[in-house]
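Q: Please design a sequence for this.
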């Protein structure tokens, strides 16, 4: 073929189409001119196209670089924060996005190849944008279950993940993604890009990043432990996480897994044999870990991180911190299991409402929160009853009354306290079941939860001093509204939280040393640097002797005859019950809430039970008594401490064990002698007693009065009136210690010279007899309303507070009838001794 025949078709077409006038010279010249012009135009257009393309490329690259810089803050991925227990074992995680970032070296090659084969087979050859894939995507959509990938590269998907959080698709956004993808490729290696990609993408069920997904689905933290079928399952999720979830849609997941394995084989990453084995394999999933555990503890940690260390919740849950706590995982687990057991609690109310409860355990060694629960069926950010103020009842007596009496006012466990029915100004408290013994030792007053004794002591030591001691032990009171005697029985304006109560009792357990309550030991950032750490030092707030004597007395509470025997464990325990009785007519034998606060040498715990709001109509009140909280204490503490050593409460060096006072007299007898017109009292001598205090009252008198002190077991009473009937009792004395009261002996004095005789059928009376036949104390009793029933003392603003009898009469009142005995061990009830005086805030 000659050169003439090879001319371009356009010229041939033009010659053919010139028509009949082609022979005219003028027209021929014009056509030649147009051809040159066209060629020139094409050249110019081509040049302009090249310039535009180059300009567009430069613009894209510049825009990509600008986007990278503008979004640099988004490159730091939100990471889950890990929570560790006291043994530095991971127990749970905090996250907005459940993500754990892994380094490039931690990702096995086969895992990377699985995603490359599935999502972007030309990943290692393109520069961020795969034009071939884009073209194919525009021509034809992916055939269902086919091996054809979409138009976006892995780099583009990464750019999209960084730039946008929603799946909207627009031309502008696709162009922006492409621009940033090219910039990413310029600034990063391929391994850096795919590592970032695998750390960011979503894998369903709240898992972000390949490590979180591996732990969720297979329970594997080390990605190198993943087998081929597990790798393929993870790669299958990239296309549609929820659709191909092996938990939600196991069959669809298996089908998509087969596609991934086929693609991996086609790329030469696995052999046909490996493909078949992994396709046929039965996938073994980890147990579902989606349920968040230890929610009260987590909320407590989050709150402490913000209020104490200034780390806001948003920062904490996304910063990839490691938070080391004082949690004992076993104790927390045991507590939550107990609170899921309905049998441990009062039956549901008439309308089906569950009675509520909360509990906290503290470590006596450093104040660490061992375990905590804010309520039954507690959920994240729920109302936390462990940190909410509630009326503490008699559990407050050791805090506001007895600690101060021992610490600064010269009392000891065997000091005798008034236990006679009496009023203090306008405040007239009652003992449970209106049982009174006249006098009781401080030990017995605590053991039996005597209300009158506690109020009498507070009246003696001064309300202000009791309030100061409460604040010293970590429970500040309202300076105006709480300035009354009802605080002796836990009638508080604002109440006290279970955490505060446990913290205060922990001081008794730790020899008077006060530790700051805390859950966080230290906080380590994602780079491994400790950024916050607990460093508060403990301080001595009570004498060791005060703490020791309180502990000895509180130990008696769980012994027979005490109000908290249901808390007795197979190891030394001390504690105190508490309850707040209802005041409404017909309901006074029930309570609004009940407590037990107790401790072993290692741990202190507080348990509260009650309804958030009292509703008498629907049965929203407590019928089981504080013995039930004692039982919950025992249930949790026994199991939580099962593997811990059984330690004793040790007596501090330099602190003497007080000698137990002489035993009480049980054979007091009275006889009227006509010749001397007097009453002779006789009794058996009490070993080691140095004196005997004789008390008497007539039927016409309200209270017993001391009528004499002798050093031998006999007394002659001549100050008698014919026709009157007299009652006597004797208290043995050993040094400063007083023994228990004797039986009460009664005699009627004759009028006409007849010999006096005791009333018929009246034997010795034991005023300390237990309240019921089986010797079970009120708070042990299974009968409804069992408890120490602190009456309607005080008000309170808590959700279950009730109006009460009100407080005392303000400061500077004088002590009157029924005043306390102070430091004078020989002062009779209601008779002020030399050093027996009401405090400056006393109420007469």
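A: Design:
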């Amino acid at each position: 073929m000659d050169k003439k025949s090879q001319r371009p078709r356009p010229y041939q077409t033009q010659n053919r189409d010139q028509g009949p006038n082609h022979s005219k010279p003028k027209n021929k010249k014009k056509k030649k001119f147009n051809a040159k012009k066209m060629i020139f135009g094409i050249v110019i257009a081509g040049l302009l196209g090249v310039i535009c393309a180059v300009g567009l490329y430069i613009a894209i690259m510049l825009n990509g670089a600008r986007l990278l810089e503008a979004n640099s803050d988004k490159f730091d991925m939100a990471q889950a924060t890990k929570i560790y227990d006291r043994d530095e074992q991971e127990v749970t995680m905090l996250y907005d996005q459940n993500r754990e970032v892994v380094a490039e070296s931690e990702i096995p090659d086969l895992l990377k190849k699985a995603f490359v084969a599935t999502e972007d087979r030309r990943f290692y050859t393109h520069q961020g944008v795969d034009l071939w894939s884009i073209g194919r995507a525009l021509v034809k959509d992916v055939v269902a279950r086919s091996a054809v990938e979409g138009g976006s590269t892995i780099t583009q998907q990464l750019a999209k993940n960084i730039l946008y959080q929603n799946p909207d698709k627009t031309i502008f956004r696709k162009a922006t993604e492409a621009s940033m993808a090219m910039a990413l490729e310029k600034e990063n290696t391929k391994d850096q890009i795919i590592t970032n990609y695998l750390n960011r993408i979503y894998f369903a069920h709240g898992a972000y990043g390949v490590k979180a997904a591996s732990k969720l689905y297979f329970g594997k933290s080390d990605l190198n432990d993943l087998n081929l079928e597990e790798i393929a399952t993870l790669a299958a999720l990239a296309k549609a996480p929820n659709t191909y979830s092996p938990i939600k849609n196991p069959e669809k997941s298996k089908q998509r897994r087969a596609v991934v394995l086929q693609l991996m084989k086609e790329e030469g990453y696995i052999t046909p044999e490996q493909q078949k084995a992994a396709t046929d394999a039965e996938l073994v999933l980890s147990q579902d870990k989606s349920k968040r555990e230890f929610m009260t503890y987590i909320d407590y940690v989050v709150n402490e991180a913000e209020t104490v260390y200034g780390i806001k919740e948003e920062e904490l849950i996304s910063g990839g911190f490691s938070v080391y706590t004082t949690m004992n995982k076993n104790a927390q687990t045991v507590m939550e299991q107990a609170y899921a057991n309905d049998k441990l609690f009062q039956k549901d109310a008439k309308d089906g409402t569950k009675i509520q409860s909360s509990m906290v355990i503290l470590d006596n060694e450093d104040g660490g929160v061992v375990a905590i629960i804010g309520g039954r069926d507690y959920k994240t950010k729920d109302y936390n009853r462990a940190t909410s103020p509630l009326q503490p009842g008699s559990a407050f007596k050791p805090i506001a009354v007895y600690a101060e009496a021992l610490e600064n006012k010269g009392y000891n466990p065997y000091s005798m306290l008034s236990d006679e029915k009496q009023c203090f100004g306008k405040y007239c408290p009652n003992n449970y079941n209106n049982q009174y013994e006249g006098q009781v030792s401080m030990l017995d007053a605590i053991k039996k939860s005597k209300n009158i004794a506690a109020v009498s002591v507070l009246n003696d030591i001064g309300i202000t001093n009791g309030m100061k001691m409460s604040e010293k032990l970590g429970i500040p009171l309202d300076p105006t509204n709480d300035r009354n005697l009802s605080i002796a029985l836990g009638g508080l304006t604002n109440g006290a939280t279970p955490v505060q109560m446990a913290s205060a009792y922990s001081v008794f357990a730790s020899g008077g040393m006060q530790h700051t309550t805390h859950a966080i030991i230290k906080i380590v950032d994602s780079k491994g640097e400790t950024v916050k750490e607990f460093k508060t030092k403990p301080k001595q707030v009570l004498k060791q002797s005060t703490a020791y004597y309180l502990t000895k007395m509180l130990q008696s509470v769980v012994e027979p005859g005490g109000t908290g025997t249901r808390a007795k464990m197979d190891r030394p325990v001390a504690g105190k019950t508490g309850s707040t009785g209802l005041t409404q007519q017909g309901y006074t034998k029930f309570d609004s809430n009940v407590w037990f606060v107790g401790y072993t040498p290692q741990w202190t715990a507080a348990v509260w039970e009650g309804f958030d709001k009292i509703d008498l109509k629907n049965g929203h009140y407590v019928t089981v008594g504080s013995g039930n909280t004692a039982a919950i204490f025992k249930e949790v503490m026994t199991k939580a401490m099962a593997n811990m050593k059984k330690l004793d409460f040790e007596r501090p060096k330099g602190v003497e064990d007080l000698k137990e006072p002489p035993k009480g007299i049980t054979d007091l007898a009275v006889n009227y002698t006509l010749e001397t017109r007097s009453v002779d009292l006789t009794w058996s001598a009490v070993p080691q007693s140095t004196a005997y205090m004789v008390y008497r009252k007539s039927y016409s008198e309200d209270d017993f009065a001391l009528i004499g002190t002798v050093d031998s077991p006999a007394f002659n009473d001549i100050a008698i009136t014919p026709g009157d009937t007299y009652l006597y009792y004797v208290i043995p004395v050993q040094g400063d210690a007083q023994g228990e009261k004797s039986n009460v002996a009664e005699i009627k004095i004759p009028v006409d010279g007849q010999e006096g005789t005791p009333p018929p059928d009246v034997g010795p009376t034991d005023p300390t007899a237990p309240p019921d036949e089986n010797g079970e104390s009120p708070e042990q009793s299974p009968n409804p309303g069992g408890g120490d029933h602190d009456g309607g003392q005080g008000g309170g603003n808590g959700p279950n507070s009730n109006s009460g009898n009100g407080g005392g009469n303000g400061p500077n009142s004088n002590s009157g009838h029924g005043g306390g005995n102070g430091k004078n061990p020989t002062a009779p009830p209601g008779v002020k001794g030399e050093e027996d005086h009401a405090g400056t805030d006393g109420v007469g």
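Q: Thanks. Anything notable?
A: The longest strand covers residues 725-734. Residues 144 and 256 are 11 Å apart (CA to CA).
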